[in-house]
Amino acid sequence: MYIPHSLYQPGDSWLHHLHPLTKLVFSLAAIVIIFSGLGGWLSAIIVGLLTMLLLWLAGLAGQVVRSIFQLLALLTVVLFLVHGLFNPNNQTILLELGPFAIGKEGLVFASTIVLRLAASLAASLLLVFTTHPAQLVQALTEVGLPHRLAYLLGSPLLLLPQIAGRVQIIQAAQQARGLETQGKLLQRVRALFPLVAPLVFSSLVDVEERSLALEVRGFSAPNPKTSLNELVDTPTQRIARWAMMLLAGLLLAVGIWWRAYSGY
Amino acid sequence: MSLKEQLRKDFSTITLVLMAVAIVLNIVLGQLVSLLKLPIFLDSIGTVLVALLAGPWAGGLTGLLTNLIWGLISDPVAAAFAPVAMVIGIVAGLCAKYGLFKKWWQAIISGVIITLALSIIAIPIRVYMFGGLTGSGADFITAYLLATGKDLFSAVFITVITDNLIDKIVTALLAWAIVKGLPKRFTSRFPRASAVID
Q1: Size of interface A-B (CB pairs under 8 A)
Q2: Do A197 and B181 touch (CB under 8 A)?
Q3: Max CA separation in chain B (angstroms)
Q4: What secondary structure letter does DSSP report for B193?
Q5: What pTM was estimated for this model as a whole?
Q6: Which element (helix H / strand E) includes A94?
Q7: Do B189 and A208 touch (CB under 8 A)?
Q8: Is the model's pLDDT at A5 over the cut of 90?
Q9: Going along A123-188, which residue ranges are E strands?
Q10: Distance (Å) from the C-alpha of residue B21 to the closest C-alpha of chain A?
Q11: Using a CB-CB distance cutoff of 8 angstroms, which residues of chain A are in contact with residue B174?
């Protein structure tokens, strides 16, 4: 069974050395601007190209394009087919294929959606590819995320390989006992509980133990926590973060205003 | 009890550990049952479990974080549906709070309620961000409905309901059965569980 560990790609590019918050704010601002709908697909193209330029400077453009393709290829085909053929707004017929007609409006709609998704994926992969999850969690705690929430973000990443290992053992064990995983629908439905219950129960069993272990190590202690690793931040990045947030907020407001008045 | 006290009680250390485990179960269980080739994903069973044991806020947070972590480790698209996962947890917790998770048939009703509630959030996300399609088998339903002259919103509405109804009913039933099967020693650590067990 394939269990993804993380999309993080270890490396030494300039994007890897940026403060995690800078990249997080960039991704979020990019997505807000893309979906502000300003200029239809124009905002998506500008933000997408800018993101690709930044990724290219870090030597990551190829990998990101490959990932976007993997994640969006199927959806893109479906979007163009379904909206080209059946979009209710189709007026201008571009091509007739027997009983089917491909409409221009549907294709334009589909390409806007694909462009937006591709651009926002590029922006989020910029963050995810170059930031170790632990660094992101640490950066968030430094700006005031309660450490209990930080635990919730970090702990599952460490638990995942352990529990995934248990999945394989349970699958093998129940099949060895003669559990029917093929055959009629009713048989397969009956196999559901014997597969799910052992994993859930066995994972819940150590919940109490884990929480005791945390308490013993001062998890609920109110005093400030210190960190082993230091994150590097610069005044330039701090200014850049504020600038990006301001720009995104401004463009979002303009986008809403523009939509309300252009009736788009 | 003030809101702050209630939150402190709802998010005790043992609840936090339970939530972390539940997030992993959400991610892993879909893969485990995929070998049965049933039309269900079970990617919110951990969320519903937390909702039954620790209430709507803990349940909602579990759903939200599941999808954010999913976005971090395998597919950023999952993060876009984080609000949907959050609603599943909140609504399941509310159903349990108001006594809709005591009997097996009540769990089925809760599954239906969860499906209706999540569709309110899922439909705008699907329509505005993804053009109403997801690149999965459910797109056939949407395409067929559009071909018969339905508008995009109602086509997606019907697709979301048919796609989720069985999954959420099975999820609610399994979560109910699991909570019932947990040892008293364990459930007694979660004050909210009494709404399901008695």
Answers
A1: 180
A2: yes
A3: 56
A4: G
A5: 0.90
A6: strand A93-97
A7: yes
A8: no
A9: none
A10: 7
A11: 192-193, 196
Both structure tokens of A254: 């303009």
Single-letter code of the amino acid located at A68: I
Instruction: Give, as one character, the DSSP assignment of residue B190.
Output: -
Angle between helices A147-176 and A192-216 (to 10 degrees): 140
Reported as a single tens digit per residue, the pLDDT across A244-253 is 999 999 999 9
Among B36, B74, B185, pick the best mutation site for testing chain A contact (most A Cβ within 10 A).
B36
Q: CB count, 10 Å around CB of B161?
A: 18
Render A5-65 in DSSP notation, one character per residue: --------SHHHHS-HHHHHHHHHHHHHHHHTTTTTTHHHHHHHHHHHHHHHHTT-HHHHH
Most confident of A50-54, A204-208, B40-44: A50-54
Share of chain A above pLDDT 90, in %: 41
Is pLDDT above 90 for A29? yes
ipTM at complex level: 0.86
Q: CA angle, B122 as apex, B91 and B85 as ends, to 5°?
A: 45
Mean pLDDT computed over B132-136: 85
- pLDDT, tens digit, 9 for 90 and up, residues A140-194: 988 888 888 889 998 998 888 888 888 888 888 888 888 877 778 888 888 888 8
Q: What is the DSSP letter of B34?
A: G
Q: What are phi and psi of B179, to 5 degrees?
A: -60, -40
Q: How far is CA A49 from CA A34, A52, B62, in A?
A: 12, 5, 35
> Residue B107 — very low, low, confident or very high, per pLDDT cuts 50/70/90?
very high
Domain map of chain A by residue range?
9-143+233-264, 155-220
